[in-house]
Amino acid sequence: MLYKYIEVSVHDNTAFLRLNRPEVRNALNRDMTSEIIEALDTLDKQASVRFMVMEGIGGTFCSGADLNWMKSAAEAPYDKNFEDSLLLATCINNLFNSEKITIAKVIGDAYGGGVGLVAACDFAYAETRSVFSFSEVNLGLVPSLIMPYVFQKTGIPALKELILTGRKIRGDEALEIGLINKSFDEKENLDDEVNLLILNLSKAAPLAQREIKKLVNRYSFINSSNSIINETAGLLAKIRAGSEAREGMQAFLQKKDPVWVINRV
Predict the structure, then answer these.
(1) What does the alpha-carbon distance between residue 255 and residue 51 come to, in Å, rounded to a whole number?
(2) At a CB cut-off of 8 Å and minimum separation 6, what does 71 contact?
């Protein structure tokens, strides 16, 4: 099936889902998010596909949610605001619960919701120079949709430090805190290792793999209740419509500091 904002191809037993909005660094908008959900559903129904690799086109993995989308959602009535938040929450959760073994191949940077996509995958390989950031707090937003998935990779201490500061980290530090599985100085090495991972995964029994993943996810608090999706979407919708978030998003779009920033000399 043809999509506008993503590309999907299948080679042997592996699907490749490529985010394709390079002009905005693969930022997630409503249509792109809907396409990812549709593609995941379609791939889950293809028995011949065992693995799925997610990557970005154009030198960036994903810069997070499109700020123009976030801003327009914040200005909409609460029901519409919540609906958009729920869409993104559903996208990340569906990726986490995909029947396929999923691999994030991070070339370039991952911000906000892009980090959520990385954390929701079963494996994540990245370039050492790739930059990861929970930038929401600097915009007056809360990374509620992605926090459960990142928490399961990093644990509380690392997560708190990163989500409360919005500090940027590189691939080597992302590896240290458990956000990704491996990092590589050269793209060619990254490509080779992803291919080797798929080769090694292909040696295992497909049904056993699916049941193992279901079992692991069944004991995950993320999968234990749909309330997490609704709760995190509701929190984002509430915070996003507030004056602080509006100030932060507007300041970012105007390339200036929000009012709460104190510039110290």
Answers:
(1) 40
(2) 246, 249, 250, 253
Alpha carbon separation from 186 to 124, 126, 133 (Å, rounded): 16, 10, 21
Structural domain contains residue 237: yes
The CATH code of the domain that includes 89 is 3.90.226.10
The chain-wide mean pLDDT, for the chain, equals: 94
**For 34-87, what is each residue's pLDDT tens digit?**
999 999 999 999 999 999 999 999 999 999 999 999 989 989 999 999 999 999
- CB burial class (10 A; 0-12, 13-18, 19+) of residue 235? middle
197, part of any domain? no
> pLDDT, tens digit, for every residue of 114-125?
999 999 999 999
| Tokens coding 42 | 């379609």
d(CA 246, CA 74): 8
Number of structural domains in the chain: 1
pLDDT tens per residue across span 214-260: 999 888 877 656 788 999 999 999 999 999 999 999 999 899 999 99
For 78, counting Cβ atoms within 10 Å of its Cβ (0-12 exposed, 13-18 middle, 19+ buried), the class is exposed
User: Helices H, strands E: what count in the chain?
Assistant: 11, 9
Q: Please indicate, yes or no, if residue 195 is contained in any of the structural domains.
A: no
Average pLDDT over residues 21-34: 97
* Pair 180, 171: CB distance under 8 Å: yes
Contact 35, 7 (CB under 8 A): no
Residue 194 is assigned to a structural domain of this protein: no
Domain holding 20, by residue range, is 1-187+206-265
- Which residue did the predictor score with more confidence, 217 or 204? 204
